[in-house]
């Protein structure tokens, strides 16, 4: 804790600062694209046409997952410029995907729900971010639980796609999913805090390392936010 305080006093760039900066950049890019394709009438037609094609949706999902995995595994090897391009590309793709939600609520004359989609996850991330970064809870104790819970969510989601008429189960699934990713937010901020402590041991930490991990954790936080939005959307949708 002393080292972390000292880093703030000397103005040293921390992984937290870098992570929040890249999270904000990704969020602006994502919401900008979502707004353009989700709320502007002419662009809504483009979004609806493309998302009506199942092959397009599958390819878009695969590309987004590929970017996420590539950035994660190449964080130490790829150039910073390459990492930034992959990160922005991921944010743009997710923003385009999010546009279909905005269209759904706009067509149902429920634009007020769009505010809830942004406000509630933001409050969740702020609260869990403070808990995680201040290390008020040791999230390392639930790391394995979160991993297996994520796998369980993915498997259950795939199975439920092929089972019709289970609206209540989707609601329960969404509540559980929101809870799991709420914990993931705390876990990610806890990891950022631990990394800051490790880097602060060194008097002259490599700024490139801070930037690279800032992009990586910015991606993690953006994914957390996206998942919170999607799980909350399933709860707010009437059908």
TrEMBL record:
Keywords: Membrane, Transmembrane, Transmembrane helix. The chain crosses the membrane at residues 20-40, 56-75, 87-108, 114-133, 145-166, 172-190, 210-233. It is found in: Membrane. InterPro entries: Bax_inhibitor_1-related (IPR006214). It comes from the Bacteria. GO terms for cellular component: membrane. This is BAX inhibitor (BI)-1/YccA family protein. The lineage of its organism: Bacteria, Bacillati, Mycoplasmatota, Mollicutes, Mycoplasmataceae.
